[in-house]
Amino acid sequence: MIASTSQKVKEGKLVKVEVEYDGIIRRIKITGDFFLHPEDVLDRIEESMIGLGKDASIDTIASIIQGIAQAHDAQMIGIGPESLASVIRETLK
């Protein structure tokens, strides 16, 4: 199944998530008008979602995103881990 969601998050930016999944996430693409620095952190976040169960909680997804952001000393501008996790979770419904 392929699903996509576009949402304006509480930080004010638009986020679009497209996910291909069955029982687990097979492919995910995250885009929007937010900023991540360094930019390759977004690729790492997407890679970390591959294999995650489609029923993963917002807290689990946010924790993974936060861990990657911290490990790479990333700045998330216009979006936070919880907001991104919420859009991902919504897409998987």
TrEMBL record:
Keyword Glycosyltransferase appears in the UniProt entry: no
Residue stretches making up the Lipoate protein ligase C-terminal domain: 17-86
Biological process annotations from GO: protein lipoylation
Superkingdom in the source lineage: Archaea
Annotated keywords: ATP-binding, Ligase, Nucleotide-binding
Pathway field: Protein modification; protein lipoylation via exogenous pathway; protein N(6)-(lipoyl)lysine from lipoate: step 1/2; Protein modification; protein lipoylation via exogenous pathway; protein N(6)-(lipoyl)lysine from lipoate: step 2/2
GO molecular function: ATP binding; lipoate-protein ligase activity
Pfam families the record matches: Lip_prot_lig_C
Protein name: lipoate--protein ligase
Organism field: Candidatus Methanoperedens nitratireducens
